[in-house]
Amino acid sequence: MAECDPNAMKKAAAERAVDEYVKDGMTVGLGTGSTAYFAIMRVSELVKKGYKLRCVATSQQTEDIARENGVEIVNINDIEYIDVTIDGADEVDPKLNLIKGLGGALLREKIVAAATQTEVIVVDESKIVEKLGVRTALPVEVCRFGHVRTAYGLKLQGCEPVLRMKGGEPFVTDGGNYIYDCKFPEIERPFFLQSALDTIPGVVECGLFLNMAAVAVIAHRDGTVSEIRC
Ligand code: 5RP
Known about the structure:
The chain has 230 residues and is an alpha/beta fold. Helix content is 30%, strand content 27%. The two termini are 28 Å apart.
């Protein structure tokens, strides 16, 4: 692997995770984002080799990429549980608590993660942090109705909420909602913050994924790949 090549690192982590955790016959959750993309492509290679996999997509974008590459997508309502999900993250702390959602798919990603037995997170080493919130803003998905009021409630939690934009318009999620990116100085008590955000009317879901990941597969600049397990 070329040293410091971000795409090579994403590919290395994603392929290692699929090779290690995806087995023939499984129901597999497919994440969203530029790292999860390489996992989808690896799953597609397994399908072409003859593996029988049923996959659940965490976004319309992922569903489209998977289908274009011959991967069968099933409706999450038609399955009992998901064996393994391979997804990316924006920050990973030492206990495998995460910030997700810079790619805008946090709501479906959280629903899929909650239905998953083994949630495997694929990242490069730049995503590893001592405390959540130091590197990125926390994405919070909110109902469009009254979103300015909801943002006021978010601000009272000590952050600077910024409405996510795309092409001069507010970004709209697959669920038809808006996202506020909330920069906190750092998140000292993520469980407490999650509970506080859940009580704000209009908040649909936040990008804190706490106690959900079982494993993080981490690609390093020197070409090695390591794992952190819960
Ligand atoms: C999408 C996500 C992504 O997994 C996260 O943003 C990481 O993306 P990338 O691998 O492109 O850095 O949470 O909602």
